[in-house]
């Protein structure tokens, strides 16, 4: 390396390129880890969602911990009871096939306890106020749904009021919704798959399984690795160009041989 490339401004440039390369490679590796996690999740969803339905009370009770909920997630679970339609909550800012709308969540009261049931999607419509959801079926029903854990607020997610009775919410926060119900609530909700007897037309649209593809993680990882390679190539070209110019200046500044003698 030419000595001019060891000047302070060049040292800063070398360090900056090194930091950028480390960061970009780390981001590429992170995307590969995300890909592995997504593939593991896809396998779990496929395998569990195809199992035969089992009674929800065989897997969960109001005191079940997070480990029990994780073991039940995505499994088809059945429950028999009556819907508490007056306690229905609309979950805002949901989409289905590109349409904006709400999820309709209604407690299903079992024998002394309840499980929240995400009955499906309804469109937002053109009115500024939330639409009136279809009433839940009357009488005793048996539902089958995929078990899902409580939804937690993300770092920048909008909060729901901490008190009062919610008729609309930003997420299915089971502990928060349980506060406004007069019975114990299971720590997972059911994403409705089927109901008996058939309630007929006019009910919310059942939710599909999530997309079970690999997502964009591999392409993002390749992009980050490519950016890191480009940064190294750019650094090499910049260093070679600067060193060549410095050597050229030195040759130009050398005195003639006759003068030296």
Overview of the molecule:
With 261 residues, this protein is of the alpha/beta class. It has helices at residues 8-49, 66-72, 174-178, 217-253, 257-260; strands spanning 54-55, 76-83, 89-96, 99-109, 114-123, 140-149, 168-169, 188-196. Strands 2-4-5-8-6 form a 5-stranded mixed β-barrel. Strand 4 (99-109) and strand 5 (114-123) form a beta hairpin. The protein is elongated, with a radius of gyration of 30 Å. The relative contact order is 0.18.
Present the secondary structure layout:
Elements: H1 8-49, E1 54-55, H2 66-72, E2 76-83, E3 89-96, E4 99-109, E5 114-123, E6 140-149, E7 168-169, H3 174-178, E8 188-196, H4 217-253, H5 257-260
Parallel strand pairs: 1-2, 3-7, 5-8
Antiparallel strand pairs: 2-4, 2-6, 3-4, 4-5, 6-8
What is this structure, in a nutshell?
The chain is α/β, with parallel strands linked by helices and 261 residues long. The chain is built from 5 helices and 8 strands, in the order H-E-H-E-E-E-E-E-E-H-E-H-H. A hairpin with a 2-residue loop joins strand 3 (89-96) and strand 4.
Give the distance, in angstroms, between the N- and C-terminal Cα atoms.
Answer: 31 Å
**Helical content class:** 25-40%
Broad structural category = alpha/beta
Beta-strand level of the residues, as a percent range? 15-25%
Q: Quick one: how many beta strands?
A: 8
- List SSEs in N-to-C order: HEHEEEEEEHEHH
| Gyration radius from CA atoms, angstroms | 30 Å
Give the count of helical stretches: 5
Low-confidence stretches at least 5 residues in length (pLDDT < 50)?
Answer: none
Compute the average pLDDT: 91
Query: Biggest sheet: strands side by side, in what order?
Result: 2-4-5-8-6
Q: What characteristic shape results from the CA principal axes?
A: elongated
Largest sheet: 5 strands, mixed, barrel
């Amino acid at each position: 390396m030419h000595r001019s490339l060891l000047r302070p401004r060049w040292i800063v440039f070398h360090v900056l390129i090194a930091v950028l390369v480390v960061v970009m490679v780390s981001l590429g590796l992170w995307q590969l880890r995300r890909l592995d996690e997504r593939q593991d999740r896809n396998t779990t969803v496929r395998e569990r969602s195809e199992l035969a339905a089992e009674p929800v009370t065989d897997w969960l009770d109001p005191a079940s911990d997070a480990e029990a909920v994780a073991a039940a997630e995505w499994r088809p679970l059945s429950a028999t009871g009556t819907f508490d339609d007056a306690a229905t909550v609309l979950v805002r800012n949901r989409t289905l096939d590109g349409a904006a709308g709400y999820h309709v969540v209604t407690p299903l009261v079992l024998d002394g306890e309840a499980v929240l049931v995400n009955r499906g999607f309804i469109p937002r419509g053109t009115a500024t106020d939330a639409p009136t959801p279809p009433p839940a079926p009357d009488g005793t029903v048996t539902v089958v749904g995929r078990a899902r854990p409580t939804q937690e607020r993300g770092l920048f997610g909008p909060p729901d009021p901490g008190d009062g009775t919610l008729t609309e919410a930003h997420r299915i926060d089971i502990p928060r919704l349980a506060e406004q119900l007069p019975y114990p609530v299971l720590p997972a909700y059911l994403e409705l798959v089927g109901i008996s007897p058939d309630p007929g037309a006019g009910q919310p649209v059942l939710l599909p399984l999530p997309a079970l593809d690999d997502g964009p993680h591999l392409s993002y990882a390749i992009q980050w690795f490519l950016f890191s390679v480009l940064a190294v190539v750019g650094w090499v070209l910049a260093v070679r160009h600067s060193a060549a110019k410095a050597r050229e200046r030195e040759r130009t500044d050398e005195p003639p041989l006759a003068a030296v003698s």
